[in-house]
Amino acid sequence: MCVINAGEKLRKLEKEKGIVIRFVIGHSATPGGVLDRAVDSEDAEHKDFLRLKHVEGYHELSTKTRLYFSTAVSIWDAEFYLKVDDDVHLNLGMLTSTLAKYRSKPRIYIGCMKSGPVLSQKEDKYYEPEYRKFGEDGNKYFRHATGQLYAISKDLAAYISINSPILHRYANEDVSLGSWLLGLEVEHVDERSMCCGTPPDCEWKAQAGNVCVASFDWSCSGICNSVRRMKEVHDSCGEGEGAVWNVDL
């Protein structure tokens, strides 16, 4: 029996399908600490991290997103660059086949588009300190892809890389990305299969033949109790182990 470890699976995906998957992470506020050493150890074994020159922190996600796209473009020549939160269930085959439909589009921004209220109260989780830029109290943001999962085409990732020093960062990274693309000739694709709910929602859709690209709980901005429930969601909503290998690219 041959057992393939995570690192070998990643290399097989890269070689045979051109799909590169990495955990994207910066460094802790105390370089060389326990967390950094643990990440270094796993990366040495599996080669599954993209390390950024960035200090991790929830309020630094816009900076991290900008740096991620700039770094990824400099390393990999890809048709699409994506960001997926690690507490989201993802069907890689469905994601790949969905993106393949848009390969002929030079400037495309794909995700579950939304336009939520601009929160002006400091006690709100998604408080926007620059709320006055968006007009009167009660106004909504421009439409942008929700932050759990989105994809942009190569030209847009290159644009972010080239203009990185002058791209403004808002408090929320999904808003920041949307603002960087707002004034460009970009096609926004509202792909609702990228934001299915967890069972029973994604399960019913799978049973009907409409397997979701991604599933999560809106109330938690990811799968609630994801460590405990991820396998449960996968068992109900997963596409099958070999799905990605059957996608014709």
From TrEMBL:
Domain of life: Eukaryota
Cell compartments where the protein resides: Golgi apparatus membrane
Pathway(s) it belongs to: Protein modification; protein glycosylation
Gene Ontology cellular component annotations, sorted alphabetically: Golgi membrane
GO MF term (any one): galactosyltransferase activity
Record keywords: Glycosyltransferase, Golgi apparatus, Manganese, Membrane, Signal-anchor, Transferase, Transmembrane, Transmembrane helix
Signal peptide annotation: none
Topology versus the membrane: Single-pass type II membrane protein
Requisite cofactors: Mn(2+)
EC number, as in UniProt: 2.4.1.-
InterPro entries noted in UniProt: Glyco_trans_31
A Pfam family annotated for this UniProt entry: Galactosyl_T
PANTHER family: BETA-1,3-GALACTOSYLTRANSFERASE 8-RELATED, BETA-1,3-N-ACETYLGLUCOSAMINYLTRANSFERASE
Sequence similarity: Belongs to the glycosyltransferase 31 family.
Protein name listed in UniProt: Hexosyltransferase
Provenance organism: Populus alba x Populus x berolinensis
